Sequence to fold (355 residues):
Amino acid sequence: MLEWRRRREPSAVMLWLSPLIAVALTMLIGMIVFTAMGYDGFHAVRDIFLTPFLEPQRWPDLGVKAAPLVMIALGLAIGFRANVWNIGAEGQYIMGAIAGTGVALATHDMTGWWILPAMALAGVLGGMAWAAVPAFLRVRLQVSEILTSLMLTYVAVQALYYLVRGPWKDPDGFNFPQTRMFGADQTLPAMMEGSLVHLGIPVALLIAVVAWLLMEKTTAGYAVKVVGLAPAAARHGGFSADRVTWATLLASGGLAGLAGLFEAAGPFGQLTPQFPTGYGFTAIIVAFLGRLNPLGIVFGGVVLAATYVGGEIAQTTVRLPQAATGMFQALLLFVLLATDVLVKYRIGWKSRVAP
Fold:
């Protein structure tokens, strides 16, 4: 008879193997579910998880989708390591896009190399300002940042709708709810001629390396980990949990805001109600799939980006509904959390006791 046996120490092998097991189980379960629903389950899973990697013309799309996920997940992971649970990165992502767009609209008739850096700075500050609210409430009033950051997301969405339908609506846009298109100096430069690959992709990789160095090689990163693992020891060592809360939430908000600005100034080139939302929530899955490790998060970002790109492919090849992408992402998180049990437990045979 099978039984769960607690390991003496968490398994380092299973810590990194469980995400791969989770991806494989998600593919298997997805295949069964879609077959039961009347779709071609095998081809659906193949198109969602494998086709984006097998077709080179899809690789730029993977990079474009992975970049914001990686940037947001990096900020979230730093906070999660300190037990600061920022669930509202989606709102910080939107506010970053709004703040950067504000600079773009204010400089619409101007030219100059400084405009895009100013937009990026505004995006970072917009995300940080939105994250500062839950940080203040957590430090001063001990209000859960899970609730406050999540609720602020919906405020940010409504602010986006108000601006693109009201004061920021393009006067030459035939009454469509959208802002003016950004000019050349307000748009991210393309890294590859004739493709959507933009500057945000190498920037996301650079931030991942910097985040790894910060977490593994600096006192600040050590403080974040100690506060998360042993708060009492952190106090004894002179590390302030409040300062870590502020720092991690502001860093998380700033990176989410930068991702939002890159999305607005990259593929979209304007703000509309259809501005791609959902990255802030999906990035939570990316952070856990990457084991809260900055370099692992790059892997997680590419996997989740494949579900976006592959989901679009499966819509045309096997007529899978658009909601299937979200279902796969949620299923992946569920299976990942389930397989994490293997880090602390192992499965063994229970010997029969003689009567």
User: Anything to note?
Assistant: The radius of gyration is 22 Å. The first strand starts at residue 2 and ends at 6. The beta strands are 2-6, 345-349. The chain has 14 helices and two strands.
